[in-house]
Write a structure and sequence with these properties.
By secondary structure, the chain is α/β, with parallel strands linked by helices. The protein is built from nine helices and twelve strands. The two termini are 44 Å apart.
């Protein structure tokens, strides 16, 4: 989970350069325009409503102001105020945390954790996205590889193989595979084209292997049903067996591990 706290000090600064109502409006609108994901949670503290800037906001309340208030009001309200990075990380020690605001000059917040618009949000997400291990890989899989659906026993397989030193190799191949299928929106799956354009070695099994060992390649879909995951990616001692659904244009990965039995051994 990623948490983003709307920092009071980054909304209304005291001193020589206070934030004007127009700067405040534009800044909150930029935050409201951020396209956050299901693993991103925007948070605030109730003390935000006591800031003088909101008194100015309510004094000229209209449609634009209403949208700003609605955005802030929809954030998750925390019981305690978050006064900095140390406090935030102590609340969510296993998650990635950053701060929302307009001007962070006097806050002391690390620059990479200062979220003021879609660009800074994207840079933060892209940085923390790939900071993971095989222990928390599964909860990040949808973010990491949005074009692949990992199913079957892949979670247990990655934990087992990852601890044996193959984790980076697995991630590298999944990343290439995810990129290779992201624009698949018409026609049947074409593994030969992918082999030509990406550093992947995809191939089907021989008729003899499927006849004798086809059941080893029978894996379950997340919502039920089973299918033969014949196509596979070869990389060193590992194999990635997957099933491309030509109707739904989805790719299911059902097995990551040592190569399965073949007619040649």
């Amino acid at each position: 989970m990623n948490h983003f706290f709307l920092l009071n000090e980054a909304i209304e600064l005291e001193g020589d350069m206070p934030i004007t109502i127009e700067v405040f409006m534009e800044g909150i609108e930029k935050l409201n325009a951020i396209n956050k994901g299901t693993v991103d949670e925007f948070q605030r503290h109730e003390s935000i409503w006591k800031l003088p800037i909101f008194a100015l906001l309510f004094s000229q309340f209209g449609q634009r102001e209403s949208l700003v208030v609605s955005f802030v009001n929809q954030m998750v309200s925390l019981d305690s105020y978050v006064d900095g990075e140390t406090t935030y990380d102590s609340i969510y020690p296993n998650d990635k945390n950053a701060f929302l605001g307009i001007n962070f000059e006097k806050t002391g917040i690390t620059v990479s954790k200062q979220i003021t618009n879609e660009t800074s949000f994207f840079l933060f997400k892209n940085t923390v996205l790939w900071d993971f291990s095989f222990r928390n890989f599964w909860e990040r899989r949808t973010e990491l590889f949005p074009n692949l659906i990992l199913c079957g026993d892949v979670e247990a397989q990655i934990e087992r193989i990852g601890s044996a030193g193959y984790f980076n190799q697995i991630v590298e191949k999944l990343r290439d595979f995810n990129d290779s299928v992201k624009n698949w929106d018409h026609g049947d799956f074409n593994y030969k084209a992918i082999n030509r354009d990406y550093p992947l070695r995809i191939s089907p099994e021989s008729t003899q292997t499927m006849s004798k060992y086809g059941n080893e390649r029978l894996f379950s879909f997340p919502n039920g049903g089973r299918e033969h995951f014949e196509l596979h990616i070869k990389t060193g001692d590992l194999r990635f067996h997957f099933f491309p659904d030509n109707i739904e244009k989805k790719v299911y990965v059902g097995y990551i591990g040592p190569h399965l039995s073949t007619i040649s051994g």
